[in-house]
Design goal:
The chain is an alpha/beta fold. About 45% of the residues lie in helices and about 20% in strands. It is built from 13 helices and 15 strands.
Length: about 425
């Protein structure tokens, strides 16, 4: 064959390839978005927490979209709803999100009682609307009943449960002989009561010699002055407090204890991941605050999370705190890829026992109860010393000291989940 004829054939091949690529891009551009919903507090006393969580999810969705989207080029689109920290508002938002085409609901910042209500609302909605089911992915609430006795097929949890977090803290307390007397002060709702229960049970098993010298519950988000509660702690003779308080309830407790001259060791599930906690602790300048998370700012040997944190800071001008929220969007994308379909039932089954790579390691979504086996790092808010604490946080000379770390498998426990499957 003559060179000119060969050139023509080659040119036609290239033209067809270019046309096919352009057509694929056009189809991807015209593809409807894959809608998800965010339902968490965006106003009121916990509005700043909700906005922070929304931005963490936005980062994940944008990363997924930049990598080509889902299901052949569909972009992940987030519909935003303010839960107002209310179960009723959240359930109304779920109905609205579903009617607008969202098939996955991200939540977790409204407290475990609200998340539980959403999980059950999704179950009822799905029974009435076969083929249009919604899936709930909880990124922050940690009540173990959510993946235990109240588990359901349409619910997933990407945060470690209360029992997993408390097990990590109990292991730390076991080798801390200076802790002798503990007071339990918690918010009066499902998670607060669970945190107190697991604290007494797991720490008691780890350290039978420890005395629990008092226990009290208080209304969530309504106490303006914790002085009366601090007075009770002081009169009990406690040297430590197990508290599930978060947001303003935590910062106000720290202030009241400092005003009373108390030098306490607090044990909490996620204190440092909430804005204002490190600042409040630095102002109190008394005691210690130990908490657990999948990662903490300034943690050594985490370059992939550091890259996420840098990108987040550049985009939102906020400090990055919770990789689990960002990776929740990636888990969904991996599930959709595995399912090869946006059919909700196929997606649930694809996410069961799904393993996927993240900046905090390769993680597995346990199929039996839909609990992500997330690692936990025990860390304490402490002054920057250039060695164990290398960076300050929230404009202070206080940061986070790594005390211990545990894999998700090390913290995994049995559960009471008896899941009905369609």
């Amino acid at each position: 064959m003559k060179p000119i004829a060969l050139a023509r054939i080659a040119w036609r091949g290239l033209a067809h390839t270019a046309l096919a690529a352009a057509s694929a891009q056009a189809l991807a551009a015209d593809a409807p978005p894959y809608k998800v919903a965010f339902i968490d507090p965006l106003s009121g006393p916990f509005g700043s927490v909700g906005q922070l969580m929304l931005n963490h999810l936005r980062l994940g969705a944008e990363q997924v979209n930049a990598a080509g989207g889902v299901l052949g080029g569909r972009k992940m689109e987030i519909l935003e709803f303010d839960s107002k920290l209310s179960a009723q508002e959240s359930q109304t938002a779920l109905q609205s999100a579903a009617s607008q085409g969202a098939r996955v609901i991200f939540t977790g910042g409204s407290g475990s009682s609200v998340v539980a209500a959403l999980s059950q609302a999704a179950l009822r909605y799905n029974q009435r609307n076969p083929g249009k089911e919604v899936i709930v992915i909880n990124h922050s609430s940690i009540d173990p009943d959510l993946t235990g006795k109240n588990c359901n097929f349409w619910y997933f949890q990407t945060e470690a449960s209360t029992s997993m977090k408390m097990k990590a803290l109990a292991n730390f307390i076991k080798r801390s002989p200076e802790i002798k007397k503990i007071y339990l002060l918690n918010q009066d709702y499902a998670h607060g009561r669970q945190w107190a229960h697991y604290g007494r049970e797991m720490v008691g098993l780890a350290r039978p010699d420890i005395q629990f010298v008092g226990e009290q519950l208080h209304p969530i988000g309504k106490v303006k002055d914790f002085a009366p509660y601090v007075a009770n702690i002081k009169s009990s003779g406690a040297d430590s407090v197990i508290t599930g308080n978060w947001g303003p309830d935590m910062t106000l407790l720290l202030k009241a204890a400092a005003d009373a001259g108390m030098n306490l060791h607090y044990f909490n599930h996620s204190a440092g991941s909430f804005p204002g906690t490190v600042l409040a602790f630095s102002q109190a300048a008394a005691g210690e605050l130990t908490w657990v998370a999948e990662w903490h700012p300034g943690q050594a040997g985490t370059p992939k999370v550091d890259a996420w944190a840098k990108a987040y800071k550049a985009k939102f001008n906020q400090d990055y705190l919770a990789p689990r929220i960002t990776l929740s969007a990636h888990m969904l994308a991996n599930g959709l890829k595995k399912a090869g379909s946006d059919d909700p039932t196929k997606l649930v089954r694809a996410m069961e026992d799904l393993s996927f790579d993240t900046p905090v390691g390769t993680l597995r979504m346990r199929g039996e109860d839909h609990q992500l086996l997330l690692p936990q790092v025990v860390n304490t808010i402490a002054k920057v010393d250039g060695k164990k604490v290398t960076m300050g946080w929230e404009g202070t000379n206080y940061g986070f000291r790594t005390d211990a770390s545990y894999s998700g498998n090390e913290l995994a426990q049995g559960n009471a989940c008896k899941m009905a499957r369609p």
